[in-house]
Amino acid sequence: MEKSIKKFDRFDWTLTLLLMLFFLTSCVAIYSAQKTGQYVGQNFLYKQIFWYVVGSGIIAVVMMFDSEQYRKLSWYLYGFGVFLLVFLFFAPASIAEERNGAKSWFFIEPFGSIQPSEFMKVFLILALSSTIYAHHKKHSVKTLQTDFLLFIKLGFITALPLGMIMLQPDLGTSLVVLAIFTGIILVSGITWKIILPLYGGGAAFGAGILYLVIWKPELLKKYLGVKTYQFGRIYAWLDPDSYPEYGYHLLKSLSAIGSGMLTGKGINGSEVYIPESHTDFIFSVIGEEFGFVGGSFVISLYFLLIYHLTKTALDTNDPFNTYISAGVISMVTFHVFQNVGMTIQLLPITGIPLPFISYGGSSLMGNMLAMGLIYGIRFHHKTYMFASRDRSFDI
């Protein structure tokens, strides 16, 4: 009896409450979105409920493993994820048909489409965390050389799936992979003498490309062979009214969110038609039907989730768990920032769903898999009297 009570206390009830609120929000938003989208007649709500049930089962299984078992499984899972991405390229059209110019999904009846890159993101978090942990165990004395070696290891591990995802092509997921890599690097213990020059150089390169796209596009066309239409998303992001053929989704999204004003038009009150409103543009539906109040509620939920994940990273005494938490935080934060940002013209449009709310089985299962890791960290966390946090891996 006492053992059962202890397990009950170790269960992450706060995360459970947050996921239940996300579930309810997702159901209401998808119910409204499917009434006006291009898929009228299909019931995405029932499918989303089904995937939430499957995701809950994933959490129940994953949380049973402790950090030592995660470390042992990390490379098997990473290898499995890479295998799926490679197989995707060679799979016949009958099970991996190209959709909207991208070959990113397996089509398996009766389950529908499965996107392996959604699971690869979590497998990558485990592989990177395991590498950092093993590296610090081997190199107990940190030097500039050992830190640079660790950076190279992490870069190679990330580059393999990143390259294959970019070849699909899937820009949105590629950016999420880079966000995971960046977040884990920041807590890996690598000296800022390496991080600042490399990331500063990367930021300068990105700014330079953006400058050329806006002011000197002829140079990119001449020397890199970039086509005019490939600049469309950037131009539409900066000035959608002047490029309506590229900025159609953005103009519709701004119109929907703006018309919602403070409290919105109410459930099923959507009047603005937005393609894919049940997936990538679900926040636009929320903004139109529930206004500023509804949008603020959703963003507050994500703030509480990220706060809870950060607290988990700080509470654990195992550096490996901290790296996992940092990877999950980076993944969720970038998803939310990019998805919400693209609907309000803060960022260019990319195909990134809103975590736990947008419709999508692969996306939801991938996110629930990540939450399963957090549940496991909380469930198996032990606090010892007079114990202090291991600071040997800190930056």
From TrEMBL:
Its EC number is 2.4.1.129. The keyword Nucleus does not apply. InterPro entries: FtsW/RodA. Pfam families: FTSW_RODA_SPOVE. It is an enzyme of class 2 (transferase). It is a multi-pass membrane protein. It comes from the Bacteria. Keywords: Cell shape, Glycosyltransferase, Membrane, Transferase, Transmembrane, Transmembrane helix. GO terms for molecular function: glycosyltransferase activity. PANTHER family: CELL CYCLE PROTEIN (PTHR30474), PEPTIDOGLYCAN GLYCOSYLTRANSFERASE MRDB (PTHR30474:SF1). This is FtsW/RodA/SpoVE family cell cycle protein. It comes from Mesobacillus jeotgali.
